[in-house]
Amino acid sequence: MISPQPFLSPEKLARHGTRQCGNEIVVDYEKEAKHVSITARKQPHLSAMADVAPVVLNDEILEWPKNDKRRFLHVVYRVGDLDRSIKFYTEAFGMTLLRKKDVPKDKYSSAVLGFGQEESTFVVELIHNYGVENYDIGTGFGHFGISTTDIYQLVETIRAKGGKITQEAGAAEGTTAVVAFVQDLDGYEFELFQRDATPEPLCQVMFHVVDLDRSIEFYEKVQTCLLIFIELSSVRPEEKDTIAMLGYGDDPNQIAILELIYNYDVTEYTKGNAYSHIAISTDDVYKSAEVVKLVTLELGGKIIRQPGPFPGTNTKFTAFEDPEGWKTVLIDNQDFLKGLEE
């Protein structure tokens, strides 16, 4: 199942001395051009999987996601003080509070914030569990990404509101692309990108994996994320990592993306208890779950919530973990939109 023609981010291509050649990525490495084919990108030094007997997959079921209507809905994570985070995200990042609720029965409260409406924009959902002031982010989670038309002003606003600047705004090494890194009040890191206006200002979620090839194959087959493009799908000796980006669309500057990073020689990460999951829309949670079940037989991972209505609502969903334990929730498109109207 090969994805459409890849579109590579000019920022990181320029930063790491790479260029696109048709369907191949050319990476300048030790003065020798390394060519990595999009259709044959297996890298033995990345694979942590032992040889196993092949699993025969049902092609008819696996065809289903190609016609599914999917997009990133929201990313969910926990914070120690919900009101403090709402204030920071609205005043420092410039997000809007879209909804807030308190659920005393389950001892938690939540807030949804974003740069646009939930019907069409990727947003964050913050969760606060009663009595918990601190969470462990772990070593596996990386950062979120925000695009802005004035990165220098945004950095100063974040600084003034109490955020931590971990890398000042400036041109990334080897390119004119301007980026910065900041932390919110709970220690979550955000990469800021200087870009033209985009429909998805909340543009990235990044986490680490120990087997990049397996993760790419899993998300391709599950089609939770289409592999629209690969960035630097070869070694980056100066940073000792390899990255891949996945999303829905053909222009990474106009969509929300999932960035996966493999750090050489790292075989384990901690998940912590802070980051939760990404929610993605689907037209049929039952068919989507069947695809996930088949792929997990071959590559690992597991269904952690069988498809069906969420208790107390009519919203149908299913949830699964990928082979490395990162969680995704698939939510019925129509049920999701109806829920926003209620």
UniProtKB/TrEMBL annotation:
The keyword Metal-binding applies. GO terms for cellular component: cytoplasm. Zn(2+) binds at residues 125, 143, 191. Keywords: Lyase, Metal-binding, Zinc. GO terms for molecular function: lactoylglutathione lyase activity; metal ion binding. The active site is at 191 (proton donor/acceptor). It catalyses: (R)-S-lactoylglutathione = methylglyoxal + glutathione. Pathway: Secondary metabolite metabolism; methylglyoxal degradation; (R)-lactate from methylglyoxal: step 1/2. Its cofactor is Zn(2+). Its EC number is 4.4.1.5. Binds 1 zinc ion per subunit. In the homodimer, two zinc ions are bound between subunits. The keyword Zinc applies. One of its GO terms (biological process) is methylglyoxal catabolic process to D-lactate via S-lactoyl-glutathione. It holds the Pfam family Glyoxalase. Belongs to the glyoxalase I family. Catalyzes the conversion of hemimercaptal, formed from methylglyoxal and glutathione, to S-lactoylglutathione. This is Lactoylglutathione lyase.
